[in-house]
TrEMBL record:
One Pfam family hit: ABC_tran
Compartments where located: Cell inner membrane
Entry keyword set: ATP-binding, Cell inner membrane, Cell membrane, Membrane, Nucleotide-binding, Transport
Keyword Transport: yes
Primary residence: membrane
Every ABC transporter domain range: 5-251
Similarity field: Belongs to the ABC transporter superfamily.
Biological processes annotated in GO: transmembrane transport
GO cellular component, one term: plasma membrane
Protein's UniProt name: Peptide ABC transporter ATP-binding protein
Single GO MF descriptor: ATP hydrolysis activity
Length: 267
């Protein structure tokens, strides 16, 4: 496996503009570095407010780091134009279902990223890519003409995944994207992601509180505590020999969620 993503010394400070202490600087992330190989899945875990979403947003380009650099295949990510960057990294947000526009058909919502990405394809070629993508996420050609409210929540989540993969990115960042789903649907979506990873070689970065999801899908785990990366290593190493008590606590099994075993599980 070759190195896909390299995160070097990224940090993030926010300055409060209002409230009790305007102008006060908050350190959301102390400088941290890690790397990810092609096709690997990384899980980011930690308590509330520890900086997990901040890392996810910086990798996806939704936030700028206060310092540090990110490289993808050796190329500096922050020097890329948005159109180029979104061909490499796409994000599925916490409230991804609400990010679907209720007034636009599924097909048009999937065409949008392709139109934004001026790659010289004809409309017919783009539509062909959209139909292929619907198939990859387990939807039917007729879903192209559906509006989001005509789909179940599991199908809507598949549209969100389709929107993330339609540009064939190398990394997808999912920030607690599946937490609100019914457990059986969530298991199907997680298994879909494992299939996509095998078929398309996409690397996933998950922000999650669920040890079961982490054990099921991730190759590596990054543990955050109050803006600091306190542990980073392979899933196997952190499960069998955690160096921090917080790591052991976060990885204790939760009984609320079980992913039915799948042939491609990483366990
Ligand atoms: N836009 C912002 N302005 C000011 N402070 C922010 C902003 N975004 C995040 N923070 C602060 O940065 C810190 C890290 O936030 P972040 O959302 O990354 O944590 P998290 O680990 O993802 O938490 P959660 O699990 O609750 O989503 C928190 O103290 C948060 O209040």
């Amino acid at each position: 496996m070759s190195k896909l993503l390299e995160v070097r010394n990224i940090s993030k400070y926010y300055t409060h503009k209002d409230g009790w202490l305007p102008g006060r600087r908050i350190c959301a992330l102390e400088p941290l570095s890690f790397s990810l190989e092609r096709g690997e899945t990384l899980a980011i875990m930690g308590e509330t407010g520890s900086g997990k979403s901040t890392i996810a947003k910086i990798i996806a380009g939704a936030e700028k780091p206060s310092s540090g650099e990110l490289f993808i295949n050796g190329q500096a990510l922050d020097k890329m134009a948005d159109q180029q960057r979104c061909r490499y990294v796409r994000m599925i947000f916490q409230d991804s279902l609400r990010s679907l526009n209720p007034q636009i058909t599924v097909g048009k919502q999937l065409l949008e990223p392709l139109l934004f990405n001026h790659d010289g394809r004809s409309l017919e070629e783009r539509k062909k890519r959209v139909f292929e993508t619907l198939r990859k996420v387990g939807l039917l050609p007729e879903h192209y003409h559906f509006y989001p409210h005509m789909l179940s929540s599991g199908q809507q989540q598949r549209v969100c995944i389709a929107r993330a993969i339609v540009l064939e990115p190398q990394i997808i960042v999912a920030d607690e994207a599946f937490a609100a789903l019914d457990p059986s649907i969530r298991a199907q979506i997680i298994n879909l992601i494992l299939d996509l990873q095998q078929d398309m070689g996409i690397s996933f970065i998950f922000v999650t509180h669920s040890p079961e999801i982490v054990k099921h899908v991730s190759d590596k785990i990054l543990i955050m505590h109050r803006g600091k990366m306190i542990e980073f290593g392979t899933t196997q190493a952190l499960i069998t020999d955690p160096q921090e008590s917080l790591t052991a606590t976060l990885l204790q099994a939760d009984n609320n969620y079980k992913v039915p075993l799948h042939s491609t599980t990483k366990e």
